[in-house]
Structure formats: structure tokens, C-alpha cells
Write a structure and sequence with these properties.
The complex is a heterodimer of chains A (415) and B (165). By secondary structure, chain A is an alpha/beta fold. Helices cover 32% and strands 18% of the residues of chain A. In chain A, the strands form five sheets. Chain A has a five-stranded parallel sheet, with helices on both faces. Chain A has a five-stranded parallel sheet with strand order 16-15-14-17-18. In chain A, strand 12 and strand 13 form a beta hairpin. Chain B has one domain: Aconitase, domain 4. In chain B, helix 5 links the parallel strand 3 and strand 4. The chains are: A alpha/beta (415), B alpha/beta (165).
Chain lengths: 415, 165
Amino acid sequence: MGKTLSEKILGKKVNKDVVAGEIVEVEPDVAMSHDNTAAISKSFYKIGVDKVFDPQKHVIILDHCTPAANSKFAQNHKDIREFVTKQNIKNFYDIQHGVCHQVIHEKGHIYPGALVVGSDSHSTSYGAFGAFSCGIGRSEMAVIMARGKIWLKVPETIKIYVKGKFPKGISSKDLMLQIAREIRADGALYKAIEFCGPTIDNMSVASRFVLANMAVEIGAKAGYMIPNQATLDYLKKHTSRPYEIIESDPDATFEKTYTFDVSNLEPMVAKPHTVDNVSPISEVAGTKIDQVFFGSCTNGRIEDFQVVSDVVKGKKIHPGVRMLVFPASNTIYMEALKQGFIQNLMEAGAVIMNPGCGPCMGNHEGILADNEVCVATSNRNFKGRLGNKNSEVFLASPRTAAECAIAGKIVDWKK
Amino acid sequence: MKIKGRVWKYGDDVNTDVIFPGKYTYTLTDPKEMAKVALEDLDADFAEKVQKNDIIIGGKNFGCGSSREQAVSCLVYAGVGAIISKSYARIFFRNCINFGLPALNASDAVDGIENGEIIEIDTESGKISCKAGVYSFPPLPKEVVGIFDAGGLIPYTKKQLGIKT
């Protein structure tokens, strides 16, 4: 019987054949944490261990509230800086770098076949590079610091096969929202998702990333895809770590296969307050908006900037709308500057923010007032997500967000 | 262990942002303060009225969203004795085990139990007694039950490493 990627990667870690449903204790290759490292370090010391088990494994990136919005956040960052120095954790990226889910692979820490865990739910993202990667809790990260290990259940795998060519202006974000609409927010609970098919094979790294990033939004433990040529090129440029590409066997057991055809896909939006409350944009066209949040770990990459810049170039953001721009990393920010995208956005009236999570958890930089409506290119629209339970968030693609910023309302720009 | 308390019944997809809003994740660390904002964006009355050992009932996908452990710890600090749901988001479920909060899977019970009634859970026999009758729930996998029994992952790890408290 063939094996899935999950069974192979987790099996390799315990040197035996494992099947979906089994619980194994494994040593991850990479362990990512961010601003929550201060709390993690306190739990770590509570265990009673002095030295981090393997400092080389840990990658710590500050992004959730950078620069610090108040003295509590500042103290949190300070505690982390002291911790990484004391524990000799070299893979530490302070506030000038960007969002963890971008910086970690820009800096070469992610590679195909790796077992990665992160104390952040969107750690599914690294499956975009053929890794098995999942989110864990803070105490679990503290224990990895203490003894290097974690228990994981080998998940069943769902296959999502995607075919067809995207209509002009339609992107992987629209596809992901369509997937959420069909599979629902709990449709892949505890499962791994294997994204495959000709459309996935032809996508850019950034576009593929959107799918892996949001796999957790439909409940998945991991969301991965086999590296395509674009991904291999990216890896060549960014990582010096040796790797082996691990693929599911052709006769592996998949719990279910879903097929999507993007040929006639429309711009999609996730309406308040759940990611699976999705409809084609035409159904909500005309909704007045107050803010556009462009960027984030989901859609703040250079191809997204290209799209948004093309829409706003030579135009003005609607006077009733604030458009906030968060590049996913400093590297992307500099590239966007070089290519003139930042200039176009600023001339249109957008506010360029520093790379980081911005308002995505309601910490700072763009909190909404009561009854305000935001179109966001991020990955969550839960009630209160942008810091105010009396506001509304619509999730959309960068193209849709830019069109809405100019129109001052949700607009069916395809019409 | 027996847990007897009043039921607070909610629907599907109760997410971590409404249980413990993101804006508090780096600013609230005192258990008492955390308890005060538990379920703030879902049920404004909850934190004020919840009693020790009260039980939360959710539909499917309880705890979806963020990995934040405070979505579990704030409920524990508020006195919640257990959660019963049709299914859980996986990180939330792990956090429950790691924090020693019983998170039971019992779809029939979720449908049969009414908001506000007093129910009793017996974790040893795997039974829930309520107005509508007695419902069963499956035990935790044997590989992880030790974590729960030790009172959570941190005390469990201490024990494993032979570190005395």
C-alpha cells in the first residue's frame, strides 16, 4: 500500500512505517515562534530546564505588533531579545524583517520534506514548499525547547485537484475562497490537504502560498503541494539546506478528492464573520467601505503589489476610504519601491505601513471604528478580528481590494 | 472526576477571536483579568455570570482560528469545568489537553442538552447526565491521556524529565 507525504515524513522521523490515525512522537526539523516567544520562554523556564535543547532548530521572528504599540508590547519584545541572546538562538529576526510566514523562507529555513511546527495557526503555509508543517500551542513550543519533541497524529489526507486557466484578474485567493465555500470551515478538520493538478503546477510561489496559508481556515492540520519549477527556482535562490522532495505514492490512500475548475471563476469574497461565508462579489456589490487592508502573510507579495499598483496607477483612492498597505517583508517592500509600485500607491493616496501583521489581530495600525467596513486581503474575518466586534471584514483578492479602494464600495469590477 | 455545572450553549464555529480577542493576546497575562474577557465578543454576559464548573457546549469546529492558548486558559481561569462539542479545531483541542481542560466529543449530547440546564459529567465512566438522559463520550487516545492526567503538558514534561516541583 502506498504512502501519503504525511505518512512518509512522519514515518521517516520515527524510522518505521506509520499510517494515518497513528500517534507518533517526533523531533521537528524547524520550530517557528514569534512575539509569543516571551510567553513561551516563561513556560520553558517553568519546566525547570536551563538550556534550550537545540537552539539551531528555532526560528524566532517579531511581527505581531511591530514596532511595539505600548509598553507591554515593548516589554514583550525586550524579554524575547534577552531570551534569544541568553539561549544562543541565532535565527532571530527583529522588527525590521517582516511577517514570520514570509521571512522564514526568504531566509532559507524552509525546505521540501522538512517537518516544521510553528506556534501560529498559519504555519500550514510552509507546505507550499513541500514541507509537512502545522501549527501548535505555546506550551508545546516550550516543551520542544525543553526536550526537542512533540506528539503528532498522522493525519488522513484530502486531495484538492485544481484544473483550468484563471480568467484575467482572478487569482489563487478567489480559488481559496471558493474552496472554503465548498469544503466549509470544518471540512478538513485534522486532515492534511494535498493541492495538486495542472493549475497548481502552473502557479507562482506566491499564489501557491495563499492556498497553504489558508488551509488552516478550513480546519487542515497541514496543506502542502509538490514543489514545481517556480518553487525549485525560489529555493535555489533562498536556501542552502540540502533537501529531498517527498511525494505521496500514486497508490496512497486519500480520504476524499475534490476537483475545482477555475476556468469560469468569478471574484469571490468571504463576508462577515466567517471565512466560509463566501459569495461571488456581484452579490455584495454596492456595500460601502471605510478601509482597505492590503498586504499580510496571505497577500502581501510582489505579484500582489504589481496587481494593485496597476489598478490604482494614475487614479485616486476614494476620499471615503483609507487604504493601508503592509508588505509581507522588508525585501518585498524594497522590491516594490524599486519597481515603482510604492510610488503609484502613494500617489493614489494609500498609506504605506511597515512590514508586519498590522491590524490583523486587532493589536494596532488600522483598528476599525464601530460600524466600519473593511475589505482585507488577509486570511480571517472573525468578528472583532480587526480589533472591534462592531465592525465588518470582507476577505478578498488584492485585485478586488484595489478596485474597491478606488470605487469606495465593493464593486463587481469584472462586469 | 465528576463535573457538575450549568450549561452555556453556543453554535457552530465558535472561534478563538471571540473567545479571547486578539487585541488582548500580548497585553493581558493576569489570570483574573483574562477571565474577565472570556467569550467577550460572543456573549457579553458570560464572564460576569459564569460559575465554577459551568460547562460550555458548542456545535462543530469549536475553537477554530488562532493557536492562542489563552482561548483555553481564559476559560479555565473563568471557572469552566468542561467543554462538550461536536468537533474541535485541532490546535484548540491540543491546547485543552495541554491545559487539563476536558474537551469532550459528543454530538448527541450537544443536540440533547438545553442552554441553562444543570448537567453532570463523569470523566471516568465517559457519561454525561442531563434532562434528556445519559450520553456517552469516547476517552482520550491512550498516548495523550497521561498529559491530561498530569494536569497538563508542563507538569507532564516535568515528570517525564524527572524534575521535582
